[in-house]
Design goal:
The structure holds 2 protein chains of 2 kinds. Chain A has helices at about 15-30, 35-60, 75-90, 95-120, 140-170, 175-180. Chain A is an all-alpha fold. In chain A, about 40% of the residues are buried. By secondary structure, chain B is mainly β. Chain B has one domain. Chain B is about 15% helix and about 45% strand. In chain B, strands 1, 3, 4, 7 and 9 form a 5-stranded antiparallel beta sheet that branches. In chain B, strands 6-5-8-2-10 form a 5-stranded antiparallel beta sheet, with no helix packed on it. The longest helix of chain B is centred in the N-terminal third of the chain and has 20 residues, at about 5-20. Chain B is rod-shaped and about 95 Å long. Classes of the chains: A mainly alpha, B mainly beta. The interface between A and B is large, with 48 and 33 residues.
């Protein structure tokens, strides 16, 4: 099943659409239709995919070099809470806002420099990014719940699939999980075994 | 994990990173916008209809906060009578006003700075104003900062006096050009 591989939570259609919406809205929508809707749309879109992106990044990094892996609800919840707290701080705290401006200014400088080089323009100096601190943007926070639900459902599907596979091939959940991810044929399972729950964070 | 799936996840992660970083545009400081307006008021106690004072309303209007940031408005308002600044508190000790010409009438000035129709301060003579709270403005709409200038003749003054009221405003900063060629205007609503 396509769900059952590290980082695939980010491939959920909602996450992909949210990324596209964020890019389109920030680079085109806001200028074309300035207003409340486009102002909040980017916040909603960002909060929809960012927890899943954090979770995906964690999964990809933690699953490196090992075949023992399972989507972790703990990681998902930590990603969601981190996103919510970070978003709220950036929107409300002047200090956090300043940190955001400086950090993202430094992060995007290579992009700006690259674009300038391609255009033959002078390479700009690193600059802070702009930020509108608006407490009403917090209305977008419930979008994180949807992202959490998506990740939660994925973990549940993974657990169900692992259980079913376990019945098919024996009692070793590690074999079941790996087979589920990598081997369409039950006869082509890997030798590596691991008890369920020893993967990245452990499947709930 | 199949290679195609691994590639898809890698691409998605890269897209997420680029989208997150690239949608935080660098701050661009647009040139300052300036606007001034003068209005002359005749205070003539010799006319039968003279009511001791004149009230002038001026408003500095600029585009509302664009999607990601707005401009800050600053400037000053002042009143002159016969070439010297006048005001409620200062005209008595404003040496220049008195020493240049003892006969200069001494109108008083009361300036009420309003925001959203509510009084936000009372000033005298030349008053600077500064407002960094433009993000409170409705996105995409205009923000108006109103001034009510009430000019009165000094008590006992019987001569006609012309008072010139001046408002000068500067809108600075800003991250996205709202697209209004005027940008900042001072009007008499």
């Amino acid at each position: 099943m396509r769900d059952h591989a590290p980082g695939t939570g980010l491939l959920h259609p909602v996450a992909l659409v949210a990324m596209a919406v964020l890019a389109l809205n920030d680079h085109w929508g806001k200028a074309a239709w300035p207003g409340l809707l486009t102002g909040k749309l980017s916040d909603v879109a960002g909060l929809l995919f960012f927890p899943l992106a954090l979770q995906a990044l964690w999964e990809v990094l933690s699953a490196r070099g090992t075949r023992r892996w399972a989507p972790s609800r703990t990681v998902l919840v930590v990603a969601a809470v981190t996103t919510a707290v970070g978003f709220a701080l950036v929107k409300l705290s002047p200090l956090a806002g300043e940190v955001y401006r400086s950090t993202f200014g430094a992060l995007r400088w290579p992009l700006d420099a690259g674009v300038a080089v391609v255009r033959g323009a002078p390479v700009p100096a690193p600059a802070k990014v702009m930020l509108t601190q608006d407490a009403t943007d917090l209305v977008a926070l419930p979008a994180i719940l949807l992202a959490t639900l998506i990740g939660w459902g994925r973990a549940a599907r993974h657990a169900r699939h692992a259980t079913n596979s376990q019945g098919d091939v024996g009692r070793d959940p590690g074999v079941a999980q790996v087979r589920c991810a990598d081997a369409p044929s039950p006869l082509r399972g890997p030798v590596t075994v691991s008890p369920r729950g020893q993967g990245a964070g452990g499947a709930a | 994990m199949p290679t195609s799936r691994r590639v898809a996840v890698t691409v998605a992660l890269a897209c997420a990173g680029v989208v997150t970083i690239a949608t935080s545009p660098p701050r661009r400081d647009f040139p300052d916008l300036h606007a001034t307006r003068e209005r002359q008021v005749l205070l003539d106690p010799t006319t039968p209809t003279f009511a001791t004072h004149a009230t002038v309303r001026l408003a500095a209007t600029h585009n509302g906060a664009p999607p990601d940031g707005g401009r800050a408005l600053g400037g000053w308002v002042e009143a002159e009578a016969s070439g010297c600044l006048v005001g409620v508190d200062s005209f008595n000790d404003a040496g220049s006003c008195v020493s240049i010409d003892e006969s200069v009438a001494r109108p008083t000035l009361e300036l009420v700075f309003t925001r959203d129709g509510e009084a936000a301060g009372i000033a005298t003579t030349r008053e600077a104003f500064n407002d960094q709270l433009f993000e409170r403005c409705v996105v995409g709409s205009d923000c108006t900062h109103g001034f009510t200038l009430k000019v009165s003749l000094a008590r006992g003054e019987t001569r006609p006096t012309v008072v010139t009221l001046k408002v000068s405003a500067t809108a600075s900063g800003g991250t996205v050009d709202p697209g209004d060629p005027n940008g900042l205007t001072i009007t008499e609503p």
